[in-house]
């Protein structure tokens, strides 16, 4: 799994909850979050691999089974290199302008343009209005919870949804817990209806 977002969107919270749940369930995994500060100090990418037989958590190019993208443009860029042919992409249909554009890029593509590019890479795309759902749950800052819910409904993981809900209760701060839980459920319900 690759989770792509900005530091403000806190994609590492998704990885943290998944990894803690895997520990509780005794599922073998390896994971890491990596902030790419050379190009953009606001970008964060997390990797999680379930199973055995690998030596590090980084997903080799062309081998990513699942990509969770909070920023459509960045998701399309990373999918071009990392997503396997039959990989699944769970992507936010709205994103904000990036703080950094690579050299030679003059404007940020619209999410629809990025999703169109994604459709040329994979047929398994789950489009989630995650920002809209997060705002309905209480604020932009629970976007990660929406995407976690979408991930749990969108693919089969070796961890249970109920255990993920328990882990949310353990790891999310009390001041944010109600909104986080609501956002998780909105993402879960939205993708469940797509299936």
Helix and strand layout, with pairings?
Layout: E1 2-6, H1 11-25, E2 29-35, E3 43-50, E4 64-69, H2 72-82, E5 83-92, H3 111-121, E6 124-128, H4 130-137, H5 143-154, H6 161-171, H7 174-194
Parallel strand pairs: 1-4, 4-5, 5-6
Antiparallel strand pairs: 1-3, 2-3
Averaged pLDDT, please? Answer: 86
Helix count from the secondary structure assignment: 7
Spatial strand order of the main sheet = 2-3-1-4-5-6
Class computed from helices, strands and strand pairing:
alpha/beta
Main sheet: strands, sense, barrel: 6 strands, mixed
Measured on Cα atoms, how large is the radius of gyration?
A: 16 Å
N-to-C SSE series? EHEEEHEHEHHHH
The coarse overall form would be globular
Q: Give the strand content.
A: 15-25%
Which residue ranges are poorly predicted, with pLDDT under 50 across at least 5 consecutive positions? Answer: none
Q: Tell me the span between the first and last alpha carbons.
A: 20 Å
Helix coverage percent: 40-55%
How many β-strands, per DSSP? 6
């Amino acid at each position: 799994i690759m989770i792509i977002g900005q530091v403000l969107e806190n994609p590492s919270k998704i990885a943290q909850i998944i990894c803690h749940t895997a520990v509780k369930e005794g599922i073998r995994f390896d994971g890491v979050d990596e902030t790419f500060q050379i190009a953009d100090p606001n970008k964060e990418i997390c990797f999680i691999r379930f199973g055995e037989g690998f030596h590090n958590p980084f997903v080799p190019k062309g081998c990513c089974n699942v990509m969770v993208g909070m920023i459509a443009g960045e998701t399309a860029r990373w999918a071009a290199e990392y997503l396997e042919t039959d990989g699944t992409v769970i992507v936010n249909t709205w994103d904000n302008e990036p703080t950094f554009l690579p050299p030679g890029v003059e404007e940020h593509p619209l999410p629809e343009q990025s999703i169109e590019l994604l459709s040329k890479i994979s047929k398994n795309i789950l489009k989630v209005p995650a920002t809209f759902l997060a705002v309905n749950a209480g604020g932009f800052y629970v976007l990660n919870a929406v995407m976690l819910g979408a991930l749990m409904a969108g693919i089969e993981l070796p961890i249970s949804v109920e255990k993920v809900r328990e882990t949310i209760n353990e790891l999310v701060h009390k001041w944010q817990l109600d909104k986080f839980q609501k956002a998780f459920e909105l993402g879960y319900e939205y993708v469940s209806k797509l299936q």
